[in-house]
Amino acid sequence: MVELRVEVLGPVRVLRDGVEVDSGGPRQRELLARLAAAGGRPVSFERLAEDLWDEDPARDPRDRRGALATFVGDLRRRLDPERAPRAPSHVLVTEHGGYALRLPDGGLDAARLEDVVARAERRAPAGPAGPATTDRAGADARAGDASSGTTRALQDAVAAWRGEPYADLPDRAWVRAERRRLVEVHARGVELLAEALLADGRPGEAVAALDAHAVAHPWREHAWALLALALYRDGRQSDALDVLRRARRRLADELGLDPGPELARLERDVLDQAPSLDGPTPGPRLAVTAPTSRTHLRSTVDVARTLAIAGGDHLATAQQQRVAAALAAEATGDPVLTARTVTAYDVPAVWTRSDDAEAADALVGVARRTLHRLGPDAAPVLRARLLAVVGIEHRGTRDAWARAAAEDAVGIARDVGDPGTLALALNARFLQSFQRPGAGAERETTGAELVALAEAHDLPTFAILGHLVRLQAAAGTGRFGDADVHAAAAEDVAAGYESPVVPMLTAWYRAMRDAETASPDAAARAYRAADDLLAGVRMPGVRDGLLPLALLTLRLRHGRPLDGLGDAGPYTPWVAPLRALDAGDRPGAADLARAVPEPPADHLRELRWALVAETAVRLGDAGLARRARHALARVPDELAGAGSGLVSAGPVRAWLDRLDGRRA
After folding, report:
1. Residues 6+ away with beta carbon under 8 Å from 488
2. CATH class of the domain comprising 109-278
3. Out of 21-25, 51-55, 583-587, 618-622, which region has the weakest mean confidence (pLDDT)?
4. Are 534 and 174 in contact (CB under 8 A)?
5. Is there a contact between 513 and 485 (Cβ–Cβ < 8 Å)?
6. Model pLDDT for residues 89-135, shown as the tens digit of each residue
7. How many CA atoms, within 13 angstroms, populate the side-chain half-sphere of residue 494?
8. b/e sequence 330-359, b meaning 16+ C-beta within 10 Å
9. pLDDT at 85
């Protein structure tokens, strides 16, 4: 049987039985790469046309579809030359209004890399928060894991890297997004390989794997720490110290950052020749297991905070660290220690849907139980911060106690005069303000106070939050000039932190802003480009369903069909009736409309009500129309959903007029 492989970790190429074959011209190669990037999922004709061709308004879309079919036919012949004429292809298939590339397991080098890294991540030890506190007791088990094949698999996967992914393709948005994502996966693979080599007792090989990697990625502090540890274990203490000091200089000179706790602690331990450095290095998952020390708990939360501010894939890991530390602290039976642990993670939150609802509930549970155990005599700062945790973590809900907790936190923080606590409490108030429709002016005031407080007391992450809050408040009423100012200000502050999250959010804002005046096709491209930026970041609370929702709003406002939008995720209950109507299933749409729930108290409540309004108008459902009108009449001067800063369904007044026009 012929072995077919596609490689994209460098210039794109195809191999049959290990021999490279001609994949055709630039268009065929780009088509092959785009389908490979989809991981076996079908890519629609429309998406392929947008991704493979530059905008040409004069060109008939039917020409592109015909050209695409020609390229597909040619590529099929090259990938599967033994296929009989007119026989269906099992490699490049036509499916669901598009094409999909079906390769055997292991047939795509990028997929092999991702799979090996993911498996190594799952096997990575859940140990303490840094080399200085390594638990020697687990060393033999971890070394056994490494010797069982993990190390070899990582070596093979990392060795498949041939330079910049998709190196011979044009610089298009989807290519840039895929390159960024794969560079991150490869970087993580190198670090996991180094950890496995250290666990195997092969520090010299770990140094060879890490040396160029750390220099090429100066912001990856864990890479510097692993390199220093490998050098130390290889008997090169002075070289280890030199690497740590070089990392400090590069972080300061190139990124304007101070070393995080992992590097600072490791430098102290290398100087002291701490015995714990002789054990195997821990993995990146810093989950805490009880019993544990107070210092260990606090350092774990500090590292989690650093990971969260760094953004990217670190966000999910940071939340895991934080929950583990909170539960471990609670298990000690010391409510003061628990309060200090659960409130030490002062990372701002700007979105009303949690990335991990289960983790959020766990943190709220710890905070509430701790408040009860501390009682009325608790230190005011601890009480305010615990109340703020409840307000922040139970965002996007209708939890009246969480709303009251946020207000109490602000009052206590003002009384004690602690700037950091007040910033956290204001964050909670902002998130809980979405329980009240029409609170945009209140959010503007909160954002302004956050900016002033942050500038007066050097709280840069809360300065970013304040500007994003003001951006949302301004966008919600269509004041895009003001919103532009705050988008730029947030980006300026964030630039010093090398945080990828803020530019992603502001890219979405600008796509939403431009959608008010741009053509629907141009607006769709802008939304897709913004979504590509989010592709490599684990922020499901923000990303899940957002692009299909944005494209749906465009099609509704411009009278276009609603097919081929993709999974609407958490917005499905409000989107599904419209899709059914668009497909001609009126009875099914009516059944779905009757089941539409009350929208959650979050950024996109009014946008969901706008979808309910559209459903009511199309169905002629007077009861549903009354519900939608009652909800939207509370915010007549807003743009539906624009207060999210990410997506809008247009002026609420237009939806009210549409409903009124159907009520005669």
Report:
1. none
2. mainly alpha
3. 51-55
4. no
5. no
6. 888 998 877 899 998 888 899 999 999 988 887 765 433 233 333 33
7. 23
8. bebeebebbbbbbbbbbbbbbbbbbbbeeb
9. 75
Q: Which CATH architecture has domain 294-524?
A: Alpha Horseshoe (1.25)
The amino acid occupying position 107 is G
Under CATH, what is the fold of the domain 4-101? Arc Repressor Mutant, subunit A (1.10.10)
Composition of the chain by helix, strand, coil, percent to 5: 65, 5, 30
Tens digit of each residue's pLDDT (9 = 90 or more) over 611-652? 999 999 999 999 999 999 999 999 999 999 999 999 999 999
Q: Looking at the chain, how many residues does it have?
A: 664
CA pair distance 8, 263, nearest whole angstrom: 34
Tokens at residue 212, please? Answer: 């160029």
Q: For residues 196, 199, 205 and 209, what is the CA-based torsion angle, rounded to 10 degrees?
A: 40
pLDDT at 191 over 90: yes
CA distance 151 to 147: 7
The DSSP code for 68 is H
Is the C-alpha dihedral spanning 297, 298, 303, 308 positive or negative?
A: positive
- CA–CA dist 34, 45 (Å, integer): 12
SS (HEC) of 449-501: HHHHHHHHHCCHHHHHHHHHHHHHHHHHCCCHHHHHHHHHHHHHHHHCCCCCH
Which residues neighbour 100 within 8 Å (Cβ) at sequence distance 6 or greater?
35, 38, 40, 41, 42, 43, 92, 93
**Residue 570: half-sphere exposure toward Cβ, Cα within 13 Å:** 19
